[in-house]
Amino acid sequence: MEAFRWAFIGTGTLARGVIREQLPSGRHRIASVYTRRWEKCQEFAEETGAFAARSAEEAIDRADVDGVYIVTPHNSHYEYAKLALSLGKPVLCEKPVTTDARQAEELIALAKEKRVYFAEGMWTWFSPIANQVKAWLDAGEYGELEKVSVTYRVNVIHYAPRLADPQLAGGALLDSGIYPITYLYRLFGKPVSVVCRGKLKDGIDLGERVTLGFADGRSITADISMVDRRNWEWLRIIGSRARTDLCAFHYANEVTLRPKNGKAIHFSGDGSMLNEFDRVAEEIRAGRTDSLLVPQQCTLDVMRILDECRRQMGLIYPFEK
Q1: N or C: which end of the chain has fewer CB within 10 A?
Q2: What CATH number does residue 117 fall under?
Q3: Residue 164 has what pLDDT?
Q4: How many CB atoms lie within 10 A of CB 215?
């Protein structure tokens, strides 16, 4: 099968991480690229053999583009995704797809109107590990749940300049917190209550504790930070029959189910970003307009949770005032 041809909108740190996995596979190539800084656009194009476009529309609206990958700062996702969908091009947009649920609703409605594929780049749920944990949970392998906890405390504030910039919707919640919140949503469904307590500084949130209440009476707290590694990144599910302690849950390559009686069950799978692009290309080629692994309804429900967290923290970005 010929390589799937992407238009890249954005050339930053994450985009470069993606191409390091994508291009050696031979299953993908970059057909075109656009970023607002022309010299960066040219540099990326030279490295990847792509066409350097002077505008986003020029990069997207090409016959040799099978799909559009949007990997810009959060605050511009809506603009570029709307453009690509309006042009009838399938879109994989980095998480979060927008900065608020209202914009996500608009994009999903547009995708349905145009009958074109639109999915959030929620790396974790395109890989098999999270889906295996869900399969064990749904099958009752853990028995009666006794405790579920999740931490995502990673010192990533210096990973890219956008993370500390309120003008670019920086902060912990949209960049880091979306991982554990999405994980809990996919495992336990839509929460009936949200309680968020966070720390704001210089116009962004440095971290928060988000407690989700579910219809069965269960409450689970996600402990999130972008400035320290205390307790690091763990998902723990402890039940009457078995448990799982999953380190680095958002990109793990293996997971273990440990029954109280019996042998441990180990499961391995590709947790890389390449897996996400392979699956999205497959879904687009199959004619799907919504992802099986990251459904649009999931994206929208999680965006509404994030909106409520921001409301409770009083987190308003400068471009929203």
Answers
A1: C
A2: 3.40.50.720
A3: 94
A4: 11
| Residue pair 136/129 in contact by the 8 Å Cβ criterion | no
Is the distance from CB of 219 to CB of 213 less than 8 angstroms?
yes
Q: Which pLDDT belongs to residue 97? A: 97
Q: In the prediction, which pLDDT does 160 show?
A: 83
Q: Whole-angstrom Cα distance, residue 130 to residue 123? A: 10
What pLDDT does 231 receive?
82
Low-confidence residues in the chain, pLDDT < 70? none
3-state SS of 189-207 is: CCCCEEEEEEEEECCEEEE
Side chain identity, residue 146: E
**pLDDT of res. 230:** 85
Question: CB of 164 within 8 A of CB of 157?
Answer: yes
Cα 224 to Cα 155, 172, 242: the distances in Å are 11, 7, 26
DSSP type of residue 2: P
CA–CA dist 135, 73 (Å, integer): 33
Q: Answer whether residue 296 is part of any domain.
A: no
Quick check: is 179 in a domain?
yes
Helix ranges (H only) for the chain are 13-25, 38-48, 56-60, 77-86, 101-114, 123-126, 128-138, 172, 178-188, 273-285, 296-313
Distance CA 179, CA 165 (A): 20
Please give the C-alpha separations between residue 306 and each of 71, 212, 221, in angstroms, as whole numbers: 20, 11, 14
For position 186, what pLDDT does the model report?
Answer: 97
Total domain count, the chain: 2
Q: What is the largest CA-CA distance in the chain?
A: 62
Q: What is the dihedral of CA 184, 186, 192, 195, to 10 degrees?
A: 30
Q: Are residues 135 and 157 in the same domain?
A: yes
**Cα–Cα distance for residue pair 54/65, rounded to 1 Å:** 16
Q: C-alpha distances in angstroms, 65 versus 1, 15, 26, 87, 256? A: 16, 17, 16, 12, 40
Predicted confidence at residue 102, as pLDDT, reads 98
